[in-house]
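Figure S7 source data.
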Amino acid sequence: MAHILVVDDDPNILRVLKMRLASGGYQVSTATDSAAALHQIRSTEVSLALLDLKLGREDGLTLMHDLLEVSPQTAVIILTAFGSIAGAVEAMKLGAFSYLTKPFDGQALLVQIRNALEQRRLAGQVHRLQGLVGERLGLENIVGHSPAIKLVLAQVAQAAQSDANVYIEGASGTGKELIAKTLHVGSRRRSSPFVAVNCAAIPENLLESELFGHEKGAFTGADRQRPGLLAEAGGGTFFFDEISEMPITMQAKLLRVLEEREFYPVGGRSVVRLEARLVAATNRNLMEAVAQGRFREDLFYRIHVIPIRLPTLAERREDIPLLARHFLAKIVRETGKPVADISPEAMQKLMVYTWPGNIRELENVIECAVTLSDGPVIEAPNVLRDRPNAATGLPPFRDAKGIFERQYLQQVLELSKGNVTQAAQLAGKYRADLYALLRKYGLNPDDYRPG
Ligand SMILES: Nc1ncnc2c1ncn2[C@@H]1O[C@H](COP(=O)(O)OP(=O)(O)OP(=O)(O)O)[C@@H](O)[C@H]1O
Ligand SMILES: [Mg+2]
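Tokens for the predicted magnesium ion complex:
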């Protein structure tokens, strides 16, 4: 039975939450201040903590920080008063799983608790799975051997075994669609369709009938009945690309569909069941869209059950040679042009470039280099010809800090052989701060442990 610790300075709230969670099947303890909370965390294993951001005169953020230092594997959900979302967003950056604004409804709370516990469980399994992944999923299309991409693949393998909604976040060109398809192919739904819709590409007035279908005569131009994409996906996978761009009216409708798992075609009176599994992707920080009121919070939590964050190409530089050769072989197959290799100088240039367009940009650069080459080997001058910074390897200023921080953290992890306490000492950081940084840069200390 999962153990939940609730920390709030209001005893009434504690009583209500305790009752509600206990009847939801959880073991619950409570605390009204930081000292009591930390005592609990030290004496029992707590799976999840619900923290009020304002604890009398104490600060919930500090408590969260200390709590994660004692027990980094505890999932944290922040409770916050309406109007103080900034603090909650700050908490998410420091490693909270999610937040709820008061007053919240009991159902939303239970959904989030379930999501957080599920994610925590997955995080524990991911490491064990890393070795198994490749063989199981037929992942030969996904090139890469960096720790960052291995972590993603392990998460995909894990998600493929469940039916929960998956949320993929990654900058443009990082492989979101490829990952969504891989997940589909790895799941028991592989023999049903994979259907994708790009929420940014369909005009708002058409999106509803595209998704839900329509009856004949439902609106001007509806000259015959059409089933809609959700129905077309059947028991397969439905991929909502660029979900952050979904209009707010449509968000409300989608939320209802996910809650009831059924929908009505436009102008139709007979209900259709939703059988497909949902995967949503975005290249924005959707949490920020929520904070700004552009994306519904309740919908966010519905789709954000298993989050997968894709690393940028700059975060997995060690994969560049593999990827470059993979694309070279692919382009040579397609064009028949006899270009067999990439010169060391050309590869060096690829390795130091910043790749704002990620893998898609790398693919284009290789394609362009093949076209320009007149010998069997791609030479440096034909690589990244029109990119001013490429020759110096100098990143734009805005990227430089991130690149430095990531390399620094990698060095610290290597020196400490993945021992986080030691790494934190080396870096002169608190453990919880270090954890937050590692999460930010997609680094996993386990990857640096010997054996
Ligand atoms: N790990 C990988 N190995 C091989 N090819 C990859 C990998 N990741 C991505 N690609 C290729 O890179 C290109 C971009 O991938 P994809 O379209 O999935 O990215 P995306 O994140 O959806 O991009 P966008 O935000 O621009 O829609 C595709 O041609 C894809 O096949
Ligand atoms: Mg895409």
